[in-house]
Amino acid sequence: xxxxxxxxxxxxxxxxxxxxxxxxxxxxxxxxxxxxxxxxxxxxxxxxxxxxxxxxxxxxxxxxxxxxxxxxxxxxxxxxxxxxxxxxxxxxxxxxxxxxxxxxxxxxxxxxxxxxxxxxxxxxxxxxxxxxxxxxxxxxxxxxxxxxxxxxxxxxxxxx
Length: 160
Description:
Blueprint: H1 6-24, H2 36-43, H3 61-76, H4 83-140, E1 142-147, E2 152-157
Antiparallel strand pairs: 1-2
Helix pairs in contact: 1-2, 1-3
């Protein structure tokens, strides 16, 4: 990068500050981010001007430091300048919520499976008891036959 005259340098600094303000207010171009690369592209200056080279500070290094300081202060205040960062945070929160919901549903399904097993067991035991009582009752039941002479019923044991 060749030496910059004062007029070009001031014009570039003004362009960088304007681009910095736009980015920090959330006006981020498609495919860009709230970073130095996008700042350089939006200001129309080479990105290398933001970095030191050969022990010398870059011509716009002070503006890069200002940009990063302002960005950090916005992030610490809880403001999101990059919509993608906000979307990522929202999706991570939704993912966490859905994972918890899935775990709850799996737990409920497990509980319902246990309940079903216990209920079937109880029903099987009750059915066996009913069958046992029916068999026992049938063995103890006597059949009544009418006495044709005086219309009385006579008890006769049933044949099993």
